[in-house]
UniProtKB/TrEMBL annotation:
PANTHER family attached to this UniProt entry: CDP-DIACYLGLYCEROL--GLYCEROL-3-PHOSPHATE 3-PHOSPHATIDYLTRANSFERASE-RELATED, HYDROLASE FAMILY PROTEIN _ HAD-SUPERFAMILY PROTEIN
Any single Gene Ontology cellular-component annotation: mitochondrion
Natural source organism: Rhamnella rubrinervis
Protein name: Cat eye syndrome critical region protein 5
Any matching Pfam family: Hydrolase_like
GO biological process, one term: glycerophospholipid biosynthetic process
Matches recorded under InterPro entries: CDP-alcohol_PTase-I (IPR050324), HAD-like_sf (IPR036412), HAD-SF_hydro_IIA (IPR006357), HAD-SF_hydro_IIA_CECR5 (IPR006353), HAD_sf (IPR023214)
Record Gene3D superfamilies: HAD superfamily/HAD-like
């Protein structure tokens, strides 16, 4: 099976239970204000930022979603397939770049659903790869025996036959190897099988990662052994391309998955099995709605009034503001009511007219224009 989309089906083997249980929204003793009937999900790359530079008037646009006291006035979150660092750190970075306070709970990254696999792999040996700090991300989710693919590979001599030519990683690899010689490995990687592999963010060293993942996956979790049943493989997202600082689109995690799958299928008797998360899959948007509902309960100002039971009224509209028709707009369309899709021209999409295959409900030039439209539409409804 080449691709498996995971839905919430209890008590089934190899099933991911995707349920948001946020604990970072805080609480207060007073009664909440009347709920907003709408919420907003923003993509980041190509909508809010290009690289680390705010674009499209994003700082001004986001400030309009806060009250005079600086408290959250409109429930919104960042819904991105990116990642590589914990949500708490991403929230701090976004806040500093945009000049507003961002809660960790307002950041939903591609790998955020991995925390729901904790019951299955909490005490199992797993490996994680990607840019940033993939092992730290998984550790903060609660996984106790996680190694980065780089650290894992350092315990197997010559597993990457061209590592000596990679001057940009040689010192890090040497440091890791020398450390492992002085101390016992944190986990017994030479005899214990890897129970699952996680592609947390876009891999940096494709050659090494494809080689080592093929070794792990076709050997049943222990490189160098005979072919065994493949351990589970999880991708945080499956974007083929995304908009970064470079003028044209960059290859994303989906491109890496295609490369790995093509090679694995040529050298192994069974096709690669994997599970992909991230937009455009409908469960991502269902989870975003649950997070926004929590944010409804959180936003407040100095004048709280009694509104009875909160969380009982459904959203009339949820806005998805994105730049990638195949990811953001397709996902919102598939999720259906109450999602309303807005496509910006600041990222992957740059055309004058709407996208032919996945047309958005609205096309705008910038995120500032999108927020202006949302606030005017909601104030008149």
């Amino acid at each position: 099976m080449r691709f498996r989309t995971v839905f919430r089906v209890p008590q089934c083997k190899n099933t991911v239970i995707f349920l948001c249980k946020s604990r970072a929204f805080g609480s207060y003793s007073g009664q909440p204000r009347p709920e907003r009937s709408f919420g907003i999900a923003f993509d980041i790359d190509g909508v809010i930022l290009r690289g680390r530079v705010p674009i499209g008037g994003s700082p001004q646009a986001l400030r309009r979603l806060y009250g005079d006291s600086g408290s959250l006035n409109v429930p919104f979150l960042f819904l991105t397939n990116g990642g590589g660092i914990p949500e708490s750190r991403r929230a701090i970075e976004l806040g500093e770049l945009l000049g507003v306070k961002i809660l960790p709970s307002q950041v939903v990254q591609g790998h955020t659903p991995f925390k729901n696999l904790l019951n299955r792999y909490e005490n199992e040996l797993i490996i994680a790869t990607g840019k940033g700090e993939p092992a730290l991300v998984m550790s903060e989710y609660g996984f106790k025996k996680v190694l980065s693919l780089e650290e894992y590979a350092s315990h197997f001599k010559n597993i990457d036959p061209v590592s000596q030519y990679k001057n940009w990683t040689t010192m890090q690899a040497v440091d890791s190897s020398s450390h492992s010689n002085e101390l016992e490995p944190r986990h017994n990687v030479l005899s214990n099988r890897v129970k699952a592999a996680f592609v947390v963010s876009d891999p940096v060293d494709w050659g090494r990662d494809i080689q080592v993942l093929c070794d792990v996956l076709r050997s049943g979790g222990l490189p160098g052994q005979e072919n065994e049943h493949q351990p589970p493989l999880y991708f945080a997202a499956d974007d083929l391309e995304y908009q970064a600082a470079f003028p044209s689109e960059r290859l994303g995690m989906g491109a890496f998955r295609i490369a790995l799958e093509s090679i694995f299928d040529r050298i192994h008797h069974n096709a690669l099995e994997y599970t992909s998360f991230g937009k455009p899959h409908p469960f991502v948007f269902k989870n975003a709605e649950a997070v926004l509902r929590k944010l409804q309960q959180y936003y407040s100002d100095d004048c709280l009034i009694n509104s009875g039971d909160f969380g009982s009224q459904p959203f009339k509209t949820l806005y998805m503001v994105g730049d990638n028709p195949v990811v953001d707009i397709k996902g919102a369309k598939q999720a259906g009511h109450p999602w309303f899709s807005i496509l910006t021209r600041t990222g992957v999409f740059k055309e004058r007219d709407n996208h032919a295959e996945f047309p958005a409900d609205l096309v705008v030039d910038t995120v500032e224009e999108a927020v202006d439209y949302i606030l005017k539409r909601e104030s008149s409804s």
